[in-house]
Amino acid sequence: MPNPSSDRTEARRRARMAARGEMTADVEQPEPAEQPSSGGGFLQRLFPPAPPLPGRPDPLRGFDGKGPLRPVRERMFLLRANPWTWIGCGILAFLGFIASQFRSGSVFELVGTFGLFGALIAAGWFGWQRPTLYGTTAGILGFVLATVFILYSFASAGASVGIFGADLASIVLQAAYMAGLGFLGGWYGGYLRRRQTQLSGEARRRR
After folding, report:
1. Angle, alpha carbons 162-165-169 (nearest 5°)
2. Contact partners, residue 171, CB within 8 Å, separation at least 6
3. d(Cα 2, Cα 14) in Å, to the nearest integer?
4. Scanning 36, 105, 165, 194, which has its CA 20 to 30 A from the CA of 70?
5. Considering only CA atoms, which of 178, 71, 171 is closest in space to residue 130?
6. Number of C-alpha atoms within 13 angstroms, CB side, residue 72?
7. 55-74 residue pLDDT tens
């Protein structure tokens, strides 16, 4: 049975010899203890860690970090750096959301749901600077456009816009749902792009 005290004494002796330059080549170097392999949880197996995209510049290059409200200014800087990603994907999310509101089980509902999810994932794919930010912003923009469209449609039909005041809680919940959906879609789109780039690089190195 190994003696932990003896092992520690031997390790200290070798460390002192190495510090004095007396460690000879025939002295066997202690092997590092093998770290127990961690299988990780279900999510880690489902989404293995993916490295950042290679060859990309610093997304905050040129940003002045001094001053108040840095988190807000930082996000505005990133959104201005790549506006067409969240604007274009927000418009696609709006179209998908409107189509998904058709009667249950219809082709329009199915296509619209897939289009909505696809637009938010695309926001994370193309918004490499910060995928969750672009996905969330696209989701919120899609909801705002859909709300304006619905209000305009009801107003054109002669309905009073005030009827939506009684359903304000539902509107707020729908906005939070779209923002959360955008966050998840953006995260997945960014992860999918990094993972795809990683696998493509490994495939090229094996050739």
Report:
1. 160
2. 147, 164
3. 18
4. 194
5. 71
6. 3
7. 888 888 888 888 888 889 99
Full DSSP string of 42-84 = HHHHHS---PPPTTPPPTTTT----SS-HHHHHHHHHHHHSHH
Say how many residues make up the chain: 207
The 10s digit of each residue's pLDDT in 137-194 is 999 999 999 989 888 887 777 666 565 555 677 888 889 999 999 999 999 999 999 9
Nearest C-alpha neighbor of 137 from the set 123, 147, 125, 148: 123
pTM of the model: 0.73
User: Is there a contact between 109 and 103 (Cβ–Cβ < 8 Å)?
Assistant: yes
Name every residue whose Cβ is closer than 8 Å to that of residue 148 and which is 6 or more positions away in sequence.
none
What's the rounded Cα separation, in Å, for the pair 183 and 163?
A: 30
Burial class (CB in 10 A: 0-12, 13-18, 19+), 155: exposed
Q: How far apart are CA 85 and CA 121, in angstroms?
A: 11
Distances from the Cα of 170 to the Cα of 13, 93, 113, 134, 167, angstroms: 71, 19, 19, 24, 5
In angstroms, the CA 168 to CA 56 distance is 43
